[in-house]
Write a structure and sequence with these properties.
Number of helices of chain A: 0
Number of strands of chain B: 11
Number of strands of chain A: 11
Number of helices of chain B: 0
Shape of chain A: globular
Distance between the termini of chain A: 36 Å
Distance between the termini of chain B: 41 Å
Oligomer: heterodimer
Radius of gyration of chain A: 13 Å
Largest sheet of chain A: 7 strands, mixed
Largest sheet of chain B: 6 strands, mixed
Radius of gyration of chain B: 13 Å
Order of helices and strands of chain B: EEEEEEEEEEE
Amino acid sequence: DGGITQSPKYLFRKEGQNVTLSCEQNLNHDAMYWYRQDPGQGLRLIYYSQIVNDFQKGDIAEGYSVSREKKESFPLTVTSAQKNPTAFYLCASIASPGQGPGELFFGEGSRLTVL
Amino acid sequence: GQSLEQPSEVTAVEGAIVQINCTYQTSGFYGLSWYQQHDGGAPTFLSYNALDGLEETGRFSSFLSRSDSYGYLLLQELQMKDSASYFCAVLIYGQNFVFGPGTRLSVLP
């Protein structure tokens, strides 16, 4: 079955530590996205990538970093510079933005808690 | 910049029809999407409007009017399992999605 796999599902971090969230898709999608969701809130864009080896900052990129070395993989690193990282992180992908039904496919999410 | 507005909460009873509105301010976009999210879960795609008018998918319909900067999601024959948060989102010409704040729908027996 095609889809997006995020890991880990739950993660606890001590302050000052960097953590990396994994996102892998086998849908052959070009574009991938990372969103952050706080309780009772909408989705805010962290980073997105439309092609391998290229990515753009979203609205809340500070304290985060990404890479896109392979089409199927888009890992997100939450660095110690992110002051309030406790949140639900969602990875998503779409085949070709603007060409087609506009359906974003989401992973199951990673819930990060800073202790 | 781009922004979308939705009502924060809507309540309806089983079997009823409910409409969730979405107004937006954006300079240019491909289309308007709707997503459903149950507590603790990931959003799932419901509908997409690239053109003005009504799109129907089973019990769910979505509408877009670009001239009015407005869209809505219509849910018919409400069921308890429809209790969730609903998000509208626009796919802007920068090729990323901007999401609304979400509407929490509560379906009462």
